[in-house]
Amino acid sequence: MVFLSAIFNFQSLLTVILLLICTCAYIRSLAPSVLDKNKTGVLGIFWKCARIGERKSPYVAVCCIVMAFSILFIQ
């Protein structure tokens, strides 16, 4: 059995991205100052993920449900 990292397995990469978006949006809802002070640079990725999670939350929620169904019942 071959174990690939999340970079080489597309479904795992999508799962990691969805978890990153959801986590950043949750952290920003609890403590906005943590992510708002780093809007540029490498740490700006987390701010951008939080913005995606806030603005596209219905789509992110549907993607999370589809991904959970896929992981639980298809794999």
UniProtKB/TrEMBL annotation:
InterPro entries xref list: KISH_domain, Ksh1
Query: How does the UniProt record describe the way this protein sits in the membrane?
Result: Single-pass type I membrane protein
Coiled-coil residues: none
Q: Where in the cell is it found?
A: Golgi apparatus membrane
Q: What is its main location?
A: Golgi
Chain ranges passing through the membrane: 6-27, 57-74
Q: Which GO terms describe its cellular component?
A: Golgi membrane
Give the record's keywords alphabetically: Golgi apparatus, Membrane, Signal, Transmembrane, Transmembrane helix
Against Pfam families, the record matches this protein to: DUF1242
**Per the similarity annotation, which family is this?**
Belongs to the KISH family.
Briefly state the protein's biological role.
Involved in the early part of the secretory pathway.
- PANTHER family found in the cross-reference section: PROTEIN KISH-A (PTHR13229)
Protein's name in the database: Protein kish
Q: Which organism is it from?
A: Chrysochloris asiatica (Cape golden mole)
Which lineage ranks, top first, belong to the organism behind this chain?
Eukaryota, Metazoa, Chordata, Craniata, Vertebrata
